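Renewal narrative, Specific Aim 1. Our central claim is that a sequence can be written position by position from structural information alone. The example that follows is taken directly from our test logs and has not been curated for this report. It begins with the structure tokens describing the chain, in the order in which they were read.
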């Protein structure tokens, strides 16, 4: 017999999953989280759930909200099950199922008045974000805040008219809402909250600060200066492989554990969170739940972004071109496995600076094992998503480092060439690749042109910046892309693995 996820069923569900040791009615909100997706519910919400289980810091519960239409579908589903989430942690050898209850409210996306009312509350001391790599209004090539974006311009007008503007003219972007809330708190004499990005962006705290201060500067330079002086934006590194939820996962949970959950989260057992300890308004004692607080996050995030995320980006496109569906299936393909190992050892790990208390080869071994975990069901299509935002963050920084040191970039050029070939929109078997990037139309058109002239791909300076015009990289990329088209994915992978430039 199956049981629907709800607070009323928690006692009965306790025989099927680990349930909270605390009473959710005792929780009080201390954090507003914007962007309640699978990763947040498998990561920050789980760490808080562990902390609350110990009976500590019950005044740091979560209020969720969002700014996209998709967030409302999540909201409806979670409200229908009392804001509970089933988290299925899948290790190589065992699976653990738990139910989390660390969220106490979920505000409707786009309801700026309701969101701002919560952000005005002095009890809210942290505003955290998972809005994806593409949600920070950054120019891909320069990685700087794009103050010219139409949504930012619209929010600037709304901010200038507060508090008298009609509801339809309230700020709508994450950063417009944050600036509006900070302005209101300052006027009311309430200390600013800390803004904590939990996105997979290098220097995510600095990127977030630049976005918030960038919006504030469009209102007034004095406001921007106040933001930079008074608001904390800690950097952090987050890590847990968390695939998208489909009907497959819902059916599996119902069949294996008898739990009906509209939004279960399936994730790997591994998790890591390294946070810069800078929270002037206070923070929960998450070190008791396994969070690592440090003075400098940069070594950890550079390691993770280049090795894990760069590794994902490297295997994604050859696997996609070979019609491989799951990530663990890609790792079972000897050529892809060998390509990843050689690329990491020869070109990526050598340009990762030392990380405190971390052996990079051990970290690499963990990454390879995690990629190969068959229980996760992570898809190649998910890894291929949004390459126009991910390549400049995960692959091109390693390219730039290698070029600056005068070292070879053959494998990294191959990774870039395979991304271009994927954006052509057709696998090697002739199957259509459906659009898989916010900029797909443009990427597809340029990839078609690049089949004839590979330099057309590198001419996208908003993505490649100076790297695309580097003669060493351009030469390697163009020769490799031509070889991909002439010989095919398997042949070029084999050529690289065998040590041929």
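The sequence written for that structure reads:
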């Amino acid at each position: 017999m199956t049981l629907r996820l709800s607070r009323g069923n928690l006692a009965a569900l306790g025989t099927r999953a680990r349930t909270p040791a605390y009473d959710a009615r005792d929780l009080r909100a201390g954090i507003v989280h914007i962007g309640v997706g699978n990763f947040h519910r498998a990561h920050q919400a789980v760490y808080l759930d562990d902390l609350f289980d110990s009976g500590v810091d019950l005044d740091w519960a979560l209020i969720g909200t969002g700014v996209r239409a998709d967030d409302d579908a999540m909201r409806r589903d979670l409200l229908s099950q009392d804001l509970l989430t089933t988290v299925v942690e899948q290790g190589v050898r065992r699976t653990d199922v738990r139910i989390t209850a660390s969220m106490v409210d979920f505000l409707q996306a786009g309801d700026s008045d309701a969101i701002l009312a919560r952000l005005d509350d002095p009890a809210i001391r942290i505003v955290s974000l998972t809005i994806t790599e593409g949600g920070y209004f950054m120019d891909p090539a320069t990685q700087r805040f794009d103050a010219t974006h139409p949504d930012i311009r619209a929010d600037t007008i709304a901010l200038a008219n507060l508090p008298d503007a009609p509801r339809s003219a309230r700020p709508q972007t994450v950063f417009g809402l944050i600036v509006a809330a900070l302005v209101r708190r300052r006027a009311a004499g309430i200390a600013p909250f800390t803004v904590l990005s939990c996105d997979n962006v290098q220097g995510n705290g600095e990127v977030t600060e630049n976005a918030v201060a960038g919006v504030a500067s469009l209102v007034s330079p004095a406001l921007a200066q106040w933001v930079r002086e008074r608001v904390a934006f800690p950097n952090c590194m987050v890590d847990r492989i968390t695939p998208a939820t489909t009907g497959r996962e819902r059916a599996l949970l119902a069949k294996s554990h008898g739990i009906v959950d509209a939004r279960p989260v399936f994730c790997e057992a591994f998790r890591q969170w390294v946070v810069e300890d800078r929270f002037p308004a206070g923070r929960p004692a998450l070190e008791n739940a396994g969070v690592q607080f440090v003075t400098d996050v940069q070594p950890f995030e550079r390691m993770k972004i280049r090795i894990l995320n760069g590794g994902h980006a490297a295997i994604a496109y050859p696997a996609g071109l070979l019609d491989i569906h799951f990530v663990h299936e890609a790792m079972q393909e000897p050529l892809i496995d060998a390509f990843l190992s050689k690329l990491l050892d020869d070109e990526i790990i050598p340009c990762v600076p030392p990380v405190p208390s971390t052996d990079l080869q051990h970290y690499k071994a963990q990454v390879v094992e995690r990629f190969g975990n068959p229980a996760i069901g992570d898809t190649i299509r998910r890894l291929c998503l949004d390459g126009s935002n991910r390549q400049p963050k995960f692959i091109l920084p390693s390219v730039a480092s290698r070029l600056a040191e005068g070292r070879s970039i053959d494998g990294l050029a191959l990774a870039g060439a395979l991304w271009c070939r994927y954006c052509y929109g057709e696998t090697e078997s002739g199957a259509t690749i459906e659009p898989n990037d916010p900029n797909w139309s443009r990427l597809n058109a340029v990839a078609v042109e690049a089949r004839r002239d590979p330099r057309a791909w590198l001419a996208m300076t908003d993505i490649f910046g100076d790297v695309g015009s580097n003669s060493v990289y351009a030469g390697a990329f163009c020769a490799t892309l031509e070889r991909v088209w002439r010989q095919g994915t398997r042949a070029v992978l084999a050529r690289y693995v065998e040590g041929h430039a």
